[in-house]
Amino acid sequence: MSVPLTYYLILGAAVFCIGLYGALVRRNAVGILMALELMLNAVNINLVAFSRAVTPGLLTGQVFALFVIAVAAAEAAVGLAIIIALYRSKRTVNADEVDLMKG
Amino acid sequence: MDIPLLVFLALAVVTVIGALGTVLMRNIVHSALFLIVSFVGVAGIYVLLEADFLFAIQILIYVGAVATLILFGVMLTRGVRGEQPQLNNQFLPAAIMAILLFVVVLVPVILNSIWPSSTQQAPTATTALLGQELMGTYALPFEVAGVLLLIALVGAIIVAREH
Amino acid sequence: MDAINNLFPNLSAALDSLLRRFLPGTVVDIVMMLVSIVTILLLLPVVFLIMTYLERKIVARIQDRWGPNRAGPWGILQPFADMIKMFTKEDIVPAKADKIIHFLAPVIVAALPFIAFTVIPFGRGMIGRDLNIGILFIVAVTSPAAIGILMAGWGSNNKYSLLGGMRAVAQLVSYEVPMGLSILVIVMLAGSLSMQKIVEAQSGPGNLGIGWFIFAIPVGPIAFFTYFFSAVAETNRAPFDIPEGESEIVAGYHTEYTGMKFGLFQMGEYVSVFGQSCIVTTLFFGGWQGPLLPPYVWFFLKAFAVVFVFMWLRGTLPRLRVDELMGFAWKFMVPLSLANIFLTGILIRLVQIIS
To answer: Interface pTM (ipTM) of the complex?
Structure first.
């Protein structure tokens, strides 16, 4: 591996932390979803990097990353459907204003 | 300075700039476009890691489908034409502290651990191998993923339908 | 004979050995890559100009009129007149439009089809880079065009543009599915995703075209049918041109674009039509194979024959309504291509058992 493994892990950690910041801090629900996708991408980088570094012939990490991509796509679809339904009934996508169940 | 390292640095910069743009931009459409930049950066990283099939799938699925979906979502839920007055909610200082803590713990762990490594050559054509693994060892998760996608498809249509 | 057939690979090998005497190894590799990139980038706008002229002439003749015949003999200078017009028109940006998005959208739509030409085999040994995910790379690289169109529709700050953009994206995304499934049939028959291997798998006896995948009854013609009509829909050509339907919603997503930006949209569309024609000839008509003539001549002949069929369809068929278009994709093409894959699998297995 010409680029050391730790470089990929640091990149994955950086993107994950940026995504975590976005998920915690954004008000727009679609913004939170986008930050979530960033976190999933960071996880994928880690998986593929480990697969390449530790067992290059087995491709286990790549299979795992493929499943993560599939599940992330499904989750984005359902999440956006919920946001659209919410927008239709409450005319807002601000995550702070959706507090009907608040005690 | 050899070429793979330079390429890695360029792709890492692109990915991180895309990620920062996604979470820091005020205009949510610009945010979505920076997310696409980040996806393309990650696809480049896959090429560097010799995962050629995954590179094509990343562009096809994430940029071609998920990003389009997110853009549709953004365009259908825009209220007044203009940016939101306040980007962040009230958890900003707490979030920054939590993330700094996370980074302070994670980076030393990464740098100081001794990772197992192997000098085996990576296969040049991963598609056939991935296909064999998906149909062989991982046949059950493959089927479950198919059912999951079907459920997500039907569920999304039902939830977003106009009554 | 062999010298003419291998003209371009020989030229490139000669250039490579010439450069290696003066420059170090890696620089020569980079220079050779740049040479092939620049060749493709110079070739495609020329093809674009030829295609604009051909389109107007062919559609005009189908409609029983002359077509452009003022600019030069038989109207041959018409593309140059169009080019001058595009360059000198005023560039109008709508008032409240998002300037960056409005600017980037035609760039994305115009630039993406060029990337696909990296893996198209123009002749024996004439391919930019023979990736082992060749055809998947092409499918992957043509899918973000939807984003460009959505950006064009959104960045114009115009309800008709946005509506046109959304309908165009729905159409693009829907027709990617039968496209991918038809390609899967070809990949199963050829045993590889690499474009050169797909061409080589079609070499039947004696260079007479018997081995072409379109003649692989019964799955070949069905795959050709589904792929070809998905390609027509993907490039927003008639009869699937609701997005740019001139008589329907003004001009759809490129209503607010003038001058060079509109020219970029047109270039993107024609280059992607040429790209899809090249892919169709590679996948179904044996690529560069053929008797007597050099391989690259055969390739361009076949590709332009498919381009002619694209233009023929435009002049002949009426436009499909948007619900008919989507119904055609999801209720007809997708089940047909899925059944086709199933049939191909069974036939391949039967052939394996018999032989």
So the answer is: 0.92
